[in-house]
Amino acid sequence: MAKESTLREYQTNILARLENAKKAGAETPAGYLGVVIGSKNVLVNLQEISETLPITDLHRVPLVKPWFLGVANVRGVLYAINDLAQMLEQTFTSISSNARLLLISEAVISNVAFVVDKLIGLRKLEDLTLREELAEENACLKPQTYQDAENRIWHMLDCAQLVHSKEYAIPYEV
Questions:
Q1: Per-domain residue ranges for the chain?
Q2: I need a labelling partner for 32 at 20 to 30 A (CA). Which of 26, 116, 167, 173 fits?
């Protein structure tokens, strides 16, 4: 429980610093969380997630698509847990000590989370270079890609586009 509390406090602290910087008119600090989903480095807008947690007990649901891992109880609230690596690349996220759940913010949708392979850390778009070539269009990544100083390619997750996509709307097998 101490680890969950520490992670929650860390996330709350980051969001509070972002809000304070906006109010003060200062340059917005890192507004994205860098994560690994399958083989991709992905930027997740901190405004679209509410919390990061270690993987909790998942309860499987029968007759659903492989990327819908099931439901998890997070402090008395059931969350639908999704594996975006499975949705994007047909590869399962390895549930390890590095893997994390990212809870999507209530501003986007209620009670939905997704699994990432690992957290990389906070990122600023100002530190990245927008690439000219666009990525292949899919249900949850924006076509724009970025490159960092270490030549890593970063994709941008669009949580709203994900939860409103046709593929996501029907998680059961037909």
A1: 29-169
A2: 167
Residue 105 has phi, psi (to 5 degrees) of -60, 145
Phi-psi region of 148 (alpha: psi -120 to 50; beta: other; left: phi over 0): beta
Q: What is the mean pLDDT of the chain?
A: 82
Q: According to the per-residue pLDDT averaged within each range, which of 32-46, 131-145, 155-169 is highest? A: 32-46
| Burial of residue 18, with CB atoms counted within 10 A of its CB: 0-12 exposed, 13-18 middle, 19 or more buried | middle
Q: Residue 18: its pLDDT value, please?
A: 64
Give the span between the Cα atoms of 154 and 124, in whole angstroms. Answer: 12
Minimal CA–CA distance to 111: which of 99, 103, 102?
Answer: 103
3-class DSSP assignment, residue 103: strand
- CA separation (Å) from 80 to 10, 74, 91? 23, 10, 19
pLDDT of residue 150: 92
Nearest CA to 115 out of 164, 44, 158, 55 is that of: 55
Beta bridge partners of 41: 36, 154
Q: To 5 degrees, how large is the angle CA 103–CA 114–CA 44?
A: 70
Number of residues that make up the chain: 174
Q: What is the pLDDT of residues 57-109, one digit of tens each?
A: 889 988 888 888 999 999 999 999 999 898 888 888 888 888 999 999 888 88
- In the block, tokens 């998680």 appear at 171
